[in-house]
Amino acid sequence: MTLAASPPLRHLCSDRNKAFSAFGETIVVKTRGADMDHVDIIDAVYQAAVHSEQWPDTLCSIVDYVGAVAGNIVYQAPGGRGSFLIPGRMREDLNTLYLQHYTGNPYARAFEKVRPGEIAIGNSLIDAEAVRHSAFYADICEPQNIFNQLFLPHASLHERGGIGGVALFLSRQQDEHAAEAAARLKLLSPHMARAIDLSFQINKINRAPELPQRLIDAIPDAAVLIDGRGAVLLLNAAAETLLRQADGIFLSRSERPALAAHISETATRLANAIRQALLIAHGEDTPFEGALAISRPSGLPPYLMMITPLAPTAISTWDATDSGARVLIDIVDPEAKTRRQAQQLQHIFGLTDAETRVAALIGSGMNLPEIALALGISSNTVKTHAGRCFGKAGVRSQAALARLIASIPIAEKRAPTPTDSHGRSSPRAQ
């Protein structure tokens, strides 16, 4: 993945107050990093994280602040494919030449051994005098007044055989203060790391705004996404169907629909589990009950619910205003799968609808008195239906019928998920 948006960035960093063209727009830029304090630079870094087109100008400000001549964010992929470079006050023609011919230069090979978070001073790791007599130095470094390099590897770029991070370039005069420049870059390093990761995440979201819905639609069981306030954000088709049954679990009637349970004791456990999951999703360390059974007033087997906190955002202070998904809830209806298998059995052996209902409940593990109570019919009627099921299916016991039903494969069929005018699933209160 690249940080740069499409189309690629093609401009150089501007002079102070000079306008330049980027992404088809004219943007007024003020390059004043030398006059900016630490807080201003950090603010610019996070602004660039959200608006990727600002990275080149932000790099120019960092260059001035640290005391360098130029800089970039670079990723050199194994084999070259997927490599990219975001420039800050660098020559575009030489950037292309570098990516085509010079990614294996001595600085890059030395920087491969530097751990993410550390600041490397290039000339202390290589034979600098030998490099200054190379084609790489003549073609790339000398035309841009580059005498030395500082490099800050980034963890998500500096892996799988590739190398990537933030590089700042020093002139011969600036090299006299290389240690001071490295110290300034070190102060910025944690913010640069978070900002680059945030750019990755925003890029993913911008490229696939429908991804969360597509992910939960791929889950065969009922799936629900909960936002940071505990409200239902998205439902898949199976969850829509399950909630419409209103048998043990439903959407509360409120401004922000939330999952609730019909039975008091279960409702308390559900609310506590979601609250704990949200605390964990926001980065807190708290005890967590992630699995629970949801009893059903109908007497059918309980739903099995798995509650999973999703990873905190890269910048935790933004969580308070972030309405994105924080918790995934997976709801399994053991009886529903068995019911579909029993319907297959109905087609195979010619069961009646009443016999199929009894067979499905036998397959879910209920005994005959429990089935009579769940269906609201007499025990004798249940025994009659069960006996006919045994005869048609060629089995002699409830256990044998249950095993037969469990052995029947079923094909998952999902109805299209109801969407709102923006193409998003719309949770409905019951």
UniProtKB/TrEMBL annotation:
The keyword Transcription applies. One of its GO terms (molecular function) is DNA binding. InterPro entries: Sig_transdc_resp-reg_C-effctor, Tscrpt_reg_LuxR_C, WH-like_DNA-bd_sf. GO terms for biological process: regulation of DNA-templated transcription. The keyword Cell wall biogenesis/degradation does not apply. Transmembrane segments: none annotated. Keywords: DNA-binding, Transcription, Transcription regulation. It comes from the Bacteria. Residues 348-405 form the HTH luxR-type domain. This is LuxR family transcriptional regulator. It comes from Rhizobium leguminosarum bv. viciae.
